[in-house]
């Protein structure tokens, strides 16, 4: 019967190969013990990786929803800050206009009119506010300004009231310009006239920014401030007519408070909806991560035991290699 033997060189290579395999397993078990995750998911689950892949997909989807909702929440929060700033401007101008005495002087009227013009310009600038390059109050037309420049708006209004010789005529002309599709709707408002800024929240609902620069609350506020500015800028108005226009401007400014507050309240409800959706998505993401961890986590006790066993194997492999390296012909003679 033939006897198969292994030469010294072959034994050396076999020993080295076993040592490499043991080292690889040692490194893998060390990583699993430190990370708490199995290195080979397919091996740990006996090839049943479909559920893990599904969980990874759902976690990635939840992450994208959370990120998108964070961006949407930032947009709506900025819009709320802008509306609050506009309300502050409205309140300050209202107080200034309504404090004008009945028999005001020209200097007093011009001072209030200048304040009204400055407020008008500031409100237009507020409504053209952008976040990350996106316009807030232009509906879905986020790529452009919501309103034309303040000078353009006031010049159009001056042209519209050019023939007015009294307060009633000027008020009618301003009303007509703000209501006329060929006036404010085409030359003043530059955003999307139909669609509001709408963002899906990932839970089957969406958040809508209904505060748009052409909404009645903001249009009425712009009209009120513009009237105050025109009271001193219209050459055809006398002192009494200018006083009447300023008083009417003050009334409109005061009456704009409630619609603006309602717009802020509506926006606040949308912010709450975004926050709730974000919390729901974050909770779902946490639950999915727990399920994923249960499937891919390494048992610390079993891993530590296996690691200890592999360390012993590696020591024995080193001892065997050292013994083989000391063998020589003289030791067998």
If you had to describe this structure to a student in words, what would you say it looks like?
This protein is 70% helix and 4% strand. With 333 residues, the protein is mainly alpha-helical. The protein folds into two domains: 54-286, f41 fragment of flagellin, N-terminal domain (Up-down Bundle), CATH 1.20.1330; 301-333. A hairpin with a 2-residue loop joins strand 1 (130-131) and strand 2. The longest helix is centred in the first third of the chain and has 49 residues, at 50-98. The two termini are 27 Å apart.
Topology:
Blueprint: H1 8-35, H2 41-44, H3 50-98, H4 106-127, E1 130-131, E2 134-135, H5 150-160, H6 167-179, H7 184-188, E3 197-200, E4 206-209, H8 216-233, H9 239-255, H10 257-296, H11 300-326
Antiparallel strand pairs: 1-2, 3-4
Helix pairs in contact: 1-11, 3-4, 3-9, 3-10, 4-8, 4-9, 6-9, 8-9
Specify the helix fraction band. over 70%
Structural Rg: 38 Å
Number of helix segments?
11
Query: From the coordinates shown, what is the CATH architecture of the largest domain?
Result: Up-down Bundle
Provide the CATH superfamily of the largest domain: f41 fragment of flagellin, N-terminal domain
Number of strands: 4
Distance between the termini: 27 Å
Element-level helix/strand string? HHHHEEHHHEEHHHH
Task: Summarize the entry for a quick read.
This protein has helices at about 10-35, 40-45, 50-100, 105-125, 150-160, 165-180, 185-190, 215-235, 240-255, 255-295, 300-325; strands at about 130, 135, 195-200, 205-210. It is mainly alpha-helical. Helix 6 packs across helix 9 (about 240-255).
């Amino acid at each position: 019967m033939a006897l198969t033997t292994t030469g010294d060189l072959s034994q050396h290579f076999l020993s080295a190969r076993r040592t490499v395999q043991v080292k690889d397993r040692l490194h893998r078990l060390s990583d699993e013990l430190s990370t708490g995750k199995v290195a080979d998911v397919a091996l740990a689950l006996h090839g049943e990786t479909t559920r893990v892949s599904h969980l990874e997909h759902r976690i990635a989807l939840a992450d994208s929803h959370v990120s998108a909702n964070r961006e949407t929440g930032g947009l709506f929060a900025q819009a709320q800050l802008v509306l609050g700033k506009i309300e502050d401007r409205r309140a300050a101008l209202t107080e200034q206009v309504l404090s004008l005495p009945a028999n005001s002087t020209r200097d007093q009227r011009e001072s209030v009119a200048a304040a009204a013009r400055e407020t008008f310009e500031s409100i237009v600038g507020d409504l053209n506010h952008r976040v990350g390059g996106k316009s807030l109050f232009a509906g879905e037309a986020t790529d452009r300004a919501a309103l034309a420049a303040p000078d353009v708006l006031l010049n159009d209004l001056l042209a519209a009231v050019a023939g007015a010789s009294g307060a009633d005529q000027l008020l009618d002309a301003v009303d007509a310009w703000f209501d006329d599709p060929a006036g404010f709707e085409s030359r003043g408002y530059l955003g999307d006239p139909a669609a509001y800024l709408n963002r899906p929240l990932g839970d089957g609902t969406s958040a809508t920014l209904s505060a748009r620069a052409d909404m009645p609350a903001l249009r009425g506020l712009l009209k009120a401030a513009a009237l105050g500015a025109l009271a001193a800028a219209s050459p055809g108005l006398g002192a009494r007519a200018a006083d009447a226009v300023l008083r009417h401007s003050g009334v409109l400014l005061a009456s704009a408070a409630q619609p603006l507050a309602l717009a802020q309240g509506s926006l606040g409800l949308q912010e709450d909806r975004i926050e709730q959706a974000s919390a729901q998505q974050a909770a779902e993401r946490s639950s999915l991560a727990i399920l994923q961890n249960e499937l891919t986590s390494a048992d610390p006790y079993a891993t530590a035991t296996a690691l200890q066993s592999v360390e012993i194997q590696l020591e024995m492999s080193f001892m065997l290699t050292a013994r083989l390296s000391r063998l020589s012909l003289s030791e067998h003679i």
